[in-house]
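for the writeup, i need someone to sanity check this before i put it in the appendix. the sequnce is what the collaborator sent (i think, or maybe the updated version? ugh). structure was predicted straight from it, no edits. if anything looks off just tell me and ill rerun, i have time this weekend
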Amino acid sequence: MPRQSNRLLVPGCAQAINQMKTEIAGEFGVQLGANTTSRANGSVGGEITKRLVFMSESGI
């Protein structure tokens, strides 16, 4: 069974993902960090996934 890794498939995309994460957290009124609930942090991650899927499907 192959091991999973968290390496990025597209070099340089980390900055774009972090910017998206910050924007979404601001929209949701969530302050990201260890002191925030996993539900609040997870809502930001879920929204990132939704937007990335939408962007992929629409060919942006």
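The chain has one domain: 13-58. Residues 7 and 29 are 29 Å apart (CA to CA).
thx in advance!!
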